[in-house]
Amino acid sequence: MATLIIYYSQGGSTEIVAKTLAKNLRASTVRIHDLKNRDGFKNKLFASINAFRESKTDIIPTKVDLSEYDTIIFGTPTWSGNPTPAILTIIDRCNLTGKDAILFATMDNNRGDANIERLEEKVKMRGARVIESFTIATKGKSPEKLVNDTEAIIEMKDLKMYTR
Asked: What pTM was estimated for this model as a whole?
């Protein structure tokens, strides 16, 4: 049973979580890049509005081949309580029929649960079965603390049982 982690990260925290999961679960990773400039106050404001409206965006890669994977892990930061446009765009381009999904959201505050709920709706509409999900607070945490917190979640939720 092969596992793939598909994630979007702007500030780096989501990437730390994704790479920690990949290392511990022996999973492959694909980082989604949003081609819109999301830096700076004005662009972050529009990014939050885009997330709230679930607007699609131009991304690289435009598609991901999932044929070799049984379990797909999707990871995204939380913007305005929602998944990012980049991760929503890639999910809408995936056929997840027969796939198991694990979902995670990073967040500065406590609005990650709504993000997970929406991600769950989206992947189920694409045919996946959600087997686990979690949120992880990132505000003020060092990279080492994020790694430790992610490893604790892996153990607590026994995520290794879903991989080879």
From this structure: 0.90
The token pair that represents 97 in the structure block: 């029929």
The DSSP line for 2-25 is: -EEEEEE-SSSHHHHHHHHHHHHH
**pLDDT of amino acid 51:** 61
The residues, ordered by sequence, that sit 6+ positions from 33 with a Cβ below 8 Å of its Cβ are 8, 59, 60, 86
Region of poorest pLDDT, from 8-17, 34-43, 131-140, 149-158: 34-43
- Taking CA atoms, 140 is separated from 12, 144, 145, in Å, by 13, 12, 10
Give the span between the Cα atoms of 54 and 43, in whole angstroms: 16
Query: Which amino acid is it at 71?
Result: T
Alpha helices in the chain (DSSP H): 13-25, 41-53, 85-92, 112-125, 143-156
Q: Which pLDDT value is given to residue 53?
A: 58
pLDDT at 164: 65
What phi and psi, each to the nearest 5 degrees, are found at residue 156? -60, -40
82 touches 55 (CB < 8 A): no
Tell which wins on pLDDT, 111 or 12.
12
**Contact indicator for 106, 60 with CB cutoff of 8 Å:** no
